[in-house]
Write a structure and sequence with these properties.
- The complex is a heterotrimer of chains A (397), B (498) and C (299).
- With 397 residues, chain A is an alpha/beta fold.
- Helices cover 46% and strands 10% of the residues of chain A.
- In chain A, helix 2 crosses helix 8 and helix 8 packs across helix 9.
- The radius of gyration of chain A is 26 Å and the shape is globular.
- Chain A starts with a helix and ends with a helix.
- Chain B is of the alpha+beta class and 498 residues long.
- In chain C, 59% of the residues lie in helices and 3% in strands.
- Chain C has twelve helices and five strands.
- In chain C, the strands form two sheets. Chain C has a two-stranded antiparallel sheet. In chain C, strands 3-5 form a two-stranded parallel ribbon.
- In chain C, helix 4 crosses helix 5.
- Classes of the chains: A alpha/beta (397), B alpha+beta (498), C mainly alpha (299).
- Strand 4 of chain B pairs parallel with strand 1 of chain C, so a sheet runs across the interface.
Chain lengths: 397, 498, 299
């Protein structure tokens, strides 16, 4: 592990390491084939800063109104021994009245050390299972860990609830509303994946204490504002599907060592800041270094990774940049120039004489490309014919 | 999406401008649409922050809420918006037209049309309708009477927006993306500025350059309802605090100044999108209209007429949730409508039909042989059954027996009799039926002639006459389900909007 | 020296773009420097506009801006109806110093409480409104005052201690004159104290001939999370809330009392005066020592 840490530290340079959270893990799991992201996240580099320095600042940011609302709602739900949360959990989990314990794991005696918090979290949770007399009910700000690419990331779910029958439930508090029993599908899906990340992490933590994984329920609880008010409402999420996907994707995230082996030794993303904090590294140099690590850009990166504009620019001219569906529909051909060349066997309106983008190698038509070529030729022919057929109407309209 | 659309995207990448994927326009565009661009406060369910709205590009109304979390101010905003929207709708209640042979005998001659920038705008409008239509106009939680009325109309528009055959409410990004293929992904097409940048780049800029410029929220503010977070953090927060402080200090002048500053700041986030919306309208108007669009708009006029009369008669607002039966009916109806619209689009538009040809659901070619006088049966039961042979390079129907329809003669059925290969192409023999009158010779033009280029699809255009006015028990979902089973109560009126 | 309104607006636009770039680049120092320039430009704009209006003699009406009926943020958040309270933040500003207001509110509740609850209790029953944010430094100031002159004051606003580590419980304030048992927090104590607080608030309401709406709203916040306490806010009865709270209290009280007594004993044995009031901060080694000791004593 030490060698890996040293190599990652070298890549990161002098900056402080940024930590993973459930959202970044979920995003990483959605694109496990991207080595660039895997390395950057493992090394904990400051992606927004790097992206800005190479001339492609990230489109992200969070409105303080949204932050304030989220924090206020979570604080409200957890106030006074999590009174509102307890009421919801009593309904959802049929908690008997004596089960009303509240333990705050945010700090250990005023000491916010992550290792300390994690140790105490593990101890208290294990004790809840093994000593029925000492069972807790609600554990606030627990600190868990998950192995990603061979390294550990600390994770902090909103709350863990524990039933007397020996089962733990992950509880997530979100501030998007559930209106008439329905919520924004994308947001619920994101919350489900994040909860699944926490389920995995909790199972790992308990496994060290020889507690079986079934002790952590695959049913997690999502707490949101109800309708247009601040009153909370709880929904149960079944995250079995997400767990399966996550486990598979996390396994695919190659061990970081294997990825590091492919990279030149001196590679670093250090910005070399001067005394005033201004980076001295040449942007072109930094960009060249980044390109040493292969990326797998898809349009979904635009909402999950701060390097997206850089990688998108790199991917210009690739069909992947047009979307996962587009590439399949174009017979799996990788480059737009190749697509047009293969299609240009017939007249293609709007394509200046079948030109190929400068610098693109001429791909020979291999047998598997032949099928794609046939499809694209037919498509181009149909398009040309139909455009001509529509033309008189255009003039009349 | 299909191979043709993806190919068009590839061409767009190479040429630097978006490529048309349709030869005609498949939605109705009103001569006087109401453009509505709302902004919402981040983090809340539906807290209106500001909006720009109007039916004339040079006369927008700008509405601003200084304290979006204040309940009274939200309802005041709703009342202001109601004034604009209801006045606009009233304009369409003046003229009626006859509907021969149907009940009721008349309907409104035209219908209003609500245009928002994107799908998120439709969602916001739906929630705004939901949060206002149940309010009471008397008692302890009273709101101005225009507010629940606005809520019902907004809900009506957003429900119609779910129907594939309706143009009553449209999202500009969806409509533009349905008619053009850009050189970017569908995800990026959701940005109205970027989409228009590809379709109509300013002189001297490629589509990609115009789209990149549009992605900079400082140059081109997001079309909403979500605001740019850096705008929230660097500008909006301070302006709102200034208004609050001025109000608490009691200084009227300072308050006016602070309010003006807030309005000016929000205007910078709305006016560019307003301009984009009217550019989108102009681009769509420039396209010729598809043949079936008018018939579908007639359906919208029927729906509008029904809802306007329902409201005028004192009918109840749309319930919160569909009952199970209504939900099932709605889904089935949506599926049918989706198929119908897909077929009509293909019939109206050779580029759309081309996609079906590529997928093997349609074929086209020249008529190389014809038997116009072929007759079957004996004696009095002799009927005209002409045959033609079409030679095509498309994927032919797999085997005989299927029934096909031609856009040029939608009332005529063609049954596949034989399919034979012929030197790399295919010859399809079709037997025709219908659309040729009762005699035993087809009138000129009623069937394809030798040498004519024809296309045949494995589906009909699904044109259905508009339904008769439904009995109350059968009230369609578009109009809120069977009435009188739901009446808003005190809980609805008191419902938190915090 | 005086810039025109238009040129100020242009400068504000340019500064805003620059702040945004700095934020995206993760350059916090440059961002905050630019932000203070931006604030100054906005202030200058405000002044320039005021000067221009004074000359013209007119004020521009807020173009459709709705900003009347000032209400306090709490009211707006609770969605409560009612007339506006234009001076909510200023009217009834108590003449007592902050620590006395906190003492008043906590004495009503008789249990340790979080700043937000303390502020709400005070506003409901004693009329003064203060923002919970002002209480963050209070505990620190009280500790400093105590350490420099122990027991010099009749009471101190102090911490509640966690039962297991005797550390200051996050976000809770208590009164030093309370017995230690009341100021230690075991696992069941937050729930027990919540129920106790509900009873005290209900009793306080019953003592008043005309309880203010804010007090009833406060009681409803408790009642909504106590089984059987009240069906709706409108039909809520203080004595019913008390009965329901007592019923649940009976379930938890014995276990909670035992845990608190054991913790109080340890605190008296192991901690000095200041630490008994403000808790102890520990590192890993001392917690290990403590756990060994606890292991010997049994819980």
């Amino acid at each position: 592990m030490n060698g890996t840490e040293a190599r990652l530290a070298r890549i990161r340079g002098r900056a402080l390491a940024k930590t993973h959270n459930a959202r970044t893990i979920a995003a990483l799991a959605s694109n496990p084939g991207c080595a660039r992201r895997a390395i950057m996240d493992a090394a904990g580099v400051d992606k927004p800063r790097i992206a800005a320095h190479v001339g492609f600042p990230a489109p992200f940011g969070q409105s303080r109104f949204a932050l304030a609302r989220g924090n206020a709602f979570e604080a409200q739900v957890k106030a006074e021994g999590a009174a509102q949360l307890l009421t919801l959990l009593r309904e959802r989990l049929n908690l008997p009245i004596p089960q009303a314990h509240y333990d705050d794991l945010a700090e250990v005696g005023g000491n916010p050390s992550l290792d300390l918090r994690h140790a105490r979290t593990k101890a208290l949770l294990a004790r809840a299972v093994t000593s029925p007399g000492e069972a807790g009910t609600m554990f606030d700000h627990p600190l868990l860990r998950l192995a990603v690419g061979g390294r550990h990331a600390f994770l902090e779910p909103d709350l863990i609830a524990f039933q007397l029958r020996g089962r733990f439930h992950i509880v997530e508090v979100k501030s998007f509303a559930v209106i008439d029993g329905q919520a924004d599908g994308d947001k619920v899906a994101a919350a489900a994946i994040q909860s699944a990340v926490y389920v995995l992490a909790l199972r790992d933590a308990l496994a060290e204490q020889h507690v079986p994984p079934e002790a952590v329920s695959h049913e997690t609880i999502l707490v949101c504002p109800k309708d247009f008010s601040n009153q909370p409402v709880a929904t149960t999420l079944d995250v079995r599907k997400q767990l399966t996907v996550l486990r598979r994707q996390l396994a695919r995230i190659a061990r970081i060592d294997d990825l590091l082996d492919l990279l030149p030794d001196g590679l670093t993303f250090d910005l070399d800041p001067g005394g005033d904090g201004v980076p001295r590294r040449s942007p072109a140099d930094l960009a060249a270094a980044i390109r040493q690590v292969e990326a797998a850009y898809v349009p979904e990166c635009l909402s999950t990774c701060e390097m997206c504009y850089f990688c998108r620019d790199e991917a210009r001219g690739c069909t992947a940049a047009l979307g996962r569906a587009a590439r399949e529909e174009l017979g799996g051909v990788e480059h737009v120039a190749t697509v047009l060349r293969l299609a240009g066997g017939a007249e293609t309106p709007g394509v200046p004489g079948g030109t190929v983008a400068p610098g693109t190698a001429r791909t020979p038509v291999t047998p598997d490309l032949a099928e794609a070529a046939e499809l694209l030729r037919r498509a181009a022919r149909l398009r040309a014919e139909a455009s001509r057929a529509g033309a008189p109407r255009r003039e009349a309209g | 999406m299909s191979t043709l659309t993806s190919l068009a995207r590839a061409v767009a990448v190479a040429t630097g401008t978006a490529q048309r994927t349709c030869t005609v326009r498949h939605v109705h565009v009103s001569a006087r649409p109401l453009v509505f661009v709302p902004l919402a406060l981040a983090g809340e369910a539906v807290a209106p922050l500001a909006a720009i709205v109007g039916d004339q590009p040079q006369a927008p109304a700008l509405l601003v809420v200084a304290e979006p979390r204040d309940r009274d101010q939200r309802f005041a905003f709703a009342a202001d918006l109601a004034a604009v929207v209801l006045r606009y709708i009233d304009g369409y209640l003046a003229e009626q037209e006859p509907t021969p042979g149907r009940e009721p005998a008349t309907r409104y001659a035209d219908a209003p049309q609500l245009l928002v920038p994107n799908q998120a705008g439709i969602t916001f409008t739906r929630l705004l309708g939901r949060s206002t239509r149940f309010r009471r106009t008397e008692g302890p939680y009273a709101v101005p009477p225009s507010v629940p009325l606005l809520g019902r109309w907004l809900t009506f528009f957003t429900e119609r927006a779910e129907s594939p055959s309706s143009s009553l409410m449209l999202a500009a990004t969806d409509v533009l993306a349905a008619h053009w293929a850009t050189g970017q992904s569908p995800v990026e097409d959701r940005n109205l500025g970027a989409l228009l940048g590809w379709i109509d780049p300013p002189p001297g800029m490629s589509g990609a350059q115009a789209a990149a410029a549009a992605e900079d929220p400082v140059r081109c503010p997001p079309a909403g309802p979500a605001t740019d977070p850096t705008f929230d953090n660097e500008v909006l927060d301070q302006r709102m605090l200034a208004v609050r402080a001025a109000r608490l200090s009691g200084d009227g002048r300072a308050f006016q100044r602070a309010a003006a500053a807030l309005t000016a700041a929000l205007a910078t986030q709305l006016e560019p999108t307003w301009a984009l919306m009217w550019r989108a309208v102009a681009l769509l108007r420039a396209l010729p209209e598809g043949a079936h669009v008018a018939a579908r708009w007639d359906g919208d006029k029927d729906a509008f007429t029904w809802h306007a009369r329902h409201v005028a008669d004192g009918g109840p607002p749309q319930p919160r949730r569909d009952g199970a039966v209504a939900a099932a009916r709605r889904l089935a109806s949506l599926e049918r409508l989706h198929e119908m619209v897909a077929a009509q689009r293909a019939f109206d538009d050779p580029l759309v039909m081309a996609e079906h040809r590529l997928a093997g659901e349609a074929f086209a070619g020249r008529v190389v042989a014809a038997e116009p006088d072929r007759v079957v049966g004996a004696g009095a039961r002799r009927v005209l059954r002409p045959r033609i042979t079409v030679e095509t390079g498309d994927v032919p129907p797999a085997e005989p027996g299927g029934t096909f329809t031609s856009p040029a003669r939608p009332g005529q059925q063609a049954r596949v009799v034989a399919v034979t290969a012929a030197g790399g192409r295919t010859r399809v023999v079709l037997e025709l039926r219908g659309g040729m009158g009762r005699s035993l010779t087809p009138p000129p033009g009623s069937m394809p002639a030798l040498g004519e280029f024809v296309s045949y699809a494995a589906f009909g255009d699904g044109w259905q006459p508009p339904p008769a006015f439904p009995a109350p028990e059968d009230t369609p979902w578009t109009h809120g389900g069977p009435p009188a089973r739901y009446a808003p109560d005190d809980d609805d009126a008191r419902e938190d909007w915090s | 020296m005086t810039e025109s309104v238009e040129s100020l607006e242009r400068r504000i636009g340019a500064l805003r773009a620059a702040v945004r770039e700095a934020v995206l680049a993760g350059d916090r120092e440059r961002a905050s420097a630019l932000r203070s320039d931006l604030r100054q430009a906005e202030r200058d704009w405000d002044d320039a506009l005021a000067a221009a209006e004074a000359e013209a003699g007119t004020a521009r009406p807020g173009d459709g801006v709705r900003a009347e009926a000032a209400r306090s943020d709490d009211d707006a958040a609770a969605g409560a109806p009612g007339p506006g309270r234009p001076d909510a933040a200023r009217a009834g500003a108590s003449l007592l110093p902050l620590r006395e207001q906190v003492h008043e509110a906590l004495s009503l509740l008789t249990v340790p409480a979080a700043p937000r609850l303390i502020a709400t209790v005070h506003e409901a029953f004693f009329g003064g409104a203060f923002s919970a944010a002002r209480l963050t430094s209070l505990k620190r100031d009280e500790e400093r005052s105590f350490r420099s002159a122990p027991f010099a004051r009749p009471y101190y606003v102090c911490a509640a201690l966690t039962a297991d580590l005797l550390a200051p419980a996050r976000g809770l304030l208590a009164i030093s004159t309370w017995p230690l048992e009341r100021r230690v927090i075991g696992s069941l104590s937050p729930r027990v104290d919540f129920l106790t607080g509900a009873i005290r608030v209900a009793e306080a309401i019953e003592r008043l001939p005309a309880p203010p709406p804010a007090a009833r709203r406060l009681l409803w916040r408790f009642a909504a999370s106590i089984p059987g306490a009240a069906g709706t806010a409108a039909r809520m009865q203080p004595h019913e809330v008390t009965e329901a709270a007592l019923a649940e209290l009976a379930v938890h009280q014995a276990a909670d009392r035992a845990a608190r007594q054991a913790a109080a004993r340890r605190a008296r044995d192991q901690l000095g005066d200041a630490e008994q009031l403000f808790g102890t901060r520990i590192g890993l080694a001392s917690s290990a020592r403590r756990e060994r000791r606890e292991g010997r004593e049994g819980r």
